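User: Teach me something about this protein's shape.
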Amino acid sequence: MALVTLAALAMSCASPAAPGGHSSVSVPASVIDQLGPPELPAWIAEPGVLPAGLEGTNNCTFPFGNTSVQWDFHPEGACWEHPAQDGWTRNQQHRVHATSVPLCGGGPGDVFPVRMCRAGGPGQPGPSPACETATTGPNGCVICVRSVVCH
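Assistant: First, the predicted structure itself:
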């Protein structure tokens, strides 16, 4: 319980608005380490940041899960996917704009998820129990890393 309180305290001390009026919350790595998040395998989690030279590009073949997204709304917006293990495709989005984001109370935001996708549609078990969603959705994808900046 103390760790949850510590995380809540850290979140309440975060800067209320990032430059440009975007709100974001940052939790210190030491708090995250204490909370013990599940470990994602490196073939899912890495790279954590979009590799240089891929901003402004889109080679993704799996549809976005949110119909209000526009990957090229921002010049650095991107979607990059490449083959992963066991028939999965790693799908990484970078600053993909959505006019309606549930985590933003239905308002606009930019999303930065890492999804694992494969043919076969919904209901397939995900590649790791550490992913945020356990089974694939309608597009054959599970969300493993979710990051959102609300506007």
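Now, about its shape. Residues 4 and 35 are 8 Å apart (CA to CA). The longest helix spans residues 2-12. If you'd like, I can walk through any region in more detail.
User: That's plenty for now, thanks!
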